[in-house]
C-alpha cells in the first residue's frame, strides 16, 4: 500500500555523499545479474514485444556498469539494496533509469536516447527468445502492469521484487528522473499487491525458450543469394572433392529441404483418427484410443493451420508449455482428438504419443492464435480422462475420455456437500468454476469428478491442459480421493494445491502421517504430507500442520524433488514452532509411524523415542531435525 506518512520525502544526494568504486559495482552486477535483468524486463514497456523486451533487458543490465574507472557517486537512499550492498544499489538505479527512458516515445524534436532504440548487443539471429509462460495469475498481472505508466510500473516492481518501502522507492525514482513520484506511487496502488508472482518464470528473462523465426520468409530472403552463389559452390565442391565427392553432413538433406516425414506431419489428410469404439477392446485406456470429436474434424483449413502453427509458430502466436515439455513440431502425423467451436474460439486438440497440443484461434480470424503443450507420456486411466478445452469468465470446459460415463463438480472444501452433475455433449462438459482463476482468498476449491471404466476419480485444474489426479493414503497404496475418507483427508488442505499451479503436475497425494497431542491439553493436531508428482519425474512436497478445529492446514515444511513422502521413500519428518494458549512456545515434531526416535539440534536441543517430539522452546527459535527409523536408517527433516 502507499505510505500514509505526511513527513517530507528524503532529499537527493549531495556532493559529500559516499562513493561506489567501479570494481564494487562490477562485482554486484555479476553477482546479481539475473535479478537486474528481471527488474529491467518488468519495468520495460510490454509493447516492445517479448523478444525485444528480453534482449533490451539484458542490454540495459550490461550497460549499467560505468565506462570510466573512477569512483562514482552513490545515492545514499539506495544503500539498503541487496543485503546493504551499495554497489548493487548503484547498478540497480542505472538499470531502472535506463528502463524508464526506454518507455519514452520517440520524438522528431529530440534525438533518441540509446535506451529507446533496439539494442545493438546482444543479438540472436534466426531465433526468437522469450521467457517461459506462467499461469493465469501471471498473465493477469502482466496485463495489469502493462496498463500502468512506466514510473508506476517501476514503483510496483520495486515494492514487490526489491521489497523497498515507499520512501526508498520515492528516492530511487526521483534519482532516476521521475518528476511525479507521488503520482506513480498512487497509480501503482491500483494493482493488487501480488508480489510473489514477480518471481515467476513468466518474468525470468534469463531462463528462456527458443523458437525459429519465420523459416519461409528467411528462405525467400536467401533465395537470390543462394541462386547467385550456387554455381560457384558446386564447382568448388566438385574440384575440391575426390571420387564421387561427399559433404560434411553426409546423407543429411540440404537446409530447408522438403523432408517427406516432416511434410507428412503437416498434412491434415494424414492425421490419425481412431474409431469411436476402439477403446472398448484396447488393452490400455489412454489417449491413443480417444476418437476424434467435434463438428470441425473435417475442416481441412483449420487443421492445416493448427499443424503449421505447431511446427513453426509465428511472432504473434502465444506459445506455452508446462515445465519439462518440449514444444517442437511433431515427428510424424499426430492423432486428432478434437476440432470444434468452444465458446468464442475454434479449438483443435492433437496428441503425438508424448504431448497434448491445444491450438485455439478466434472465430472471426486468426489474430491472437495460441498453442499450448503438456506432457502426458505414460498417462493411463484417470490421468488420461480429461483435457481442458477452454477457459472463460472463471470457468473451464473439459473434453472427457470416451470411457467416462458421468461427470460432476465437487467443492473439495466441503466433503459432505455432495457433487453437482455436469451435462455431457459429445464428451464436452458444461462449464464449471475453475480454482485456477482464483485471484485472492480460498473459499472453495472445485474439482472434476469423473466416473467410468477406470472407476471414480477426482481431477483438479491447476492452470494446465491436463488436470491433476487427486489421491489419498500412504505412499505406495494410495487410492483415488473420491471416497468419503479421501474427501475428509483433502478438505483442510485443498487450498494448498494453489502452490502446485502451472508446475507440470501429474498427480497429488495427501497422507496423514501422524497425529500429535498438544502440550496444553487442547486436543491433538494432524500432520499431513501432500506430494505433487510432476510429469518430468520431480515432486513438490509439503508437510502441513493443523490444530483442532482449524479450517485449513498450515505449511510447516517443504521439499522440492526429494523422495520423502513418496512410493520410493514413504517416510517424512517435519517440525513446527507452536504457541500454546498460555503463551508458551513449543517445538512440535512428527515423523511417519516407523520413526524410532527424533532429535532436535540448534535453537532447540531435545530428543525422544517414537515418531513424536514435544519440547519447550523460545519464540523465533530455529532447530534442525534428525530422525532414526526402526531399521536404523537416518532421515532428515523437511526444511
Characterise this structure.
The chain has 639 residues and is α+β, with helices and mostly antiparallel strands. 22% of the residues lie in helices and 28% in strands. It is built from 12 helices and 31 strands. Strands 12, 13, 17, 18, 19, 20, 21, 22, 23 and 24 form a 10-stranded mixed sheet that branches. A hairpin with a 3-residue loop joins strand 27 and strand 28 (606-609). It is globular, with a radius of gyration of 29 Å. The two termini are 31 Å apart. The model is unreliable at 1-8, 10-18, 69-81, 106-111 and 231-257 (pLDDT under 50).
Gist of the model:
The chain is an alpha+beta fold and 639 residues long. The chain contains twelve helices and 31 strands.
Number of continuous helical runs: 12
Spans of at least 5 consecutive residues with low confidence = 1-8, 10-18, 69-81, 106-111, 231-257
Strand composition percent: 25-35%
Helix amount: 10-25%
Instruction: Give the strand tally.
Output: 31
* Rg of Cα set: 29 Å
Structural class: alpha+beta
End-to-end C-alpha gap: 31 Å
**Molecular shape:** globular
Oligomer kind: single chain
Main sheet properties = 10 strands, mixed
Q: Give the averaged pLDDT, no decimals.
A: 82
